[in-house]
Amino acid sequence: MKLIMKAVGINREEFVRKIKSGDFEFTDDPTYDCFLLSNFACSKLMVKDNDGYISVDVDSISYFESYGNTVYSVIDGKKYKTVHKLYELEFMFKNYNFIRISKSVIINRKMIKKVLPSLNTKFRLVMLDDTSLIVTRSYYYNFKEEINI
Q1: Do the strands 122-127 and 112-118 form a parallel or antiparallel pair, or are they unpaired?
Q2: Are strands 112-118 and 70-75 parallel, antiparallel or unpaired?
Q3: Under 8 Å CB-to-CB from 67, ≥6 apart: which residues?
C-alpha cells in the first residue's frame, strides 16, 4: 500500500524520522484531514456548518470556545461546531500561536486587537472581530509570558 503525506511547515528530515520511529496515530474518523503527530500541527481543521463539513485554515480561526460538551471554532464572528475536544485542539495547534485563556477558551494570538487590564489579576481581550474575552486568573501569568508583557 502507498500512502502520500504532505509535511507543511515542518522540517522534512524530522518528519521522516518520526514516521520511521512509529510516532503517529491512525484513525478512520473522516473529520481529520491530517495525521496527528507529536510536536507537529495540522494547518487545516474540519468544522461543521449547516450544509455539512468544511475545511478551514487554522490561521483564520479567531478562537475556540466550549459550551458543555460542544466546542465551537469562531471565524469572522461566526461559530462552527468541531468534533474535537478543547484539549485536543490545544495540542493540535500549539505550534500555531494558540493560547489558552480560560477553562473554556483558546485564542489565536494573531487575532488579538487589544489587551486591556482588568480587576483581580485578569485581562480583557478585544479580538479583531470586536469580540470581548476574559483571561481568567488561572491563566493570567501564562498569558503574560506567552505575549511578553
Answers
A1: antiparallel
A2: unpaired
A3: 104
pTM: 0.72
DSSP E strands in the chain: the ranges are 44-49, 52-57, 63-67, 70-75, 78-82, 98-102, 105-108, 112-118, 122-127, 132-135
Which of the residues in the chain have pLDDT under 70?
Answer: 1-11, 22-42
> What is the distance between the alpha carbons of residues 43 and 59, in angstroms, rounded to a whole number?
8
State the residue for C-alpha cell 480587576.
119
Distance of CA 103 to the CA centre of its chain: 14
Distance between CA atoms of residues 64 and 24, nearest Å: 25
- 135 in Cβ contact with 102 (< 8 Å): yes
Amino acid of residue 76: D
pLDDT of residue 6: 58
Domains of the chain: 12-109 (2.40.50.40)
In single-letter form, the type of residue at position 36 comes to: L
Asked if 136 contacts 101 with a C-beta cutoff of 8 angstroms, the reply is yes
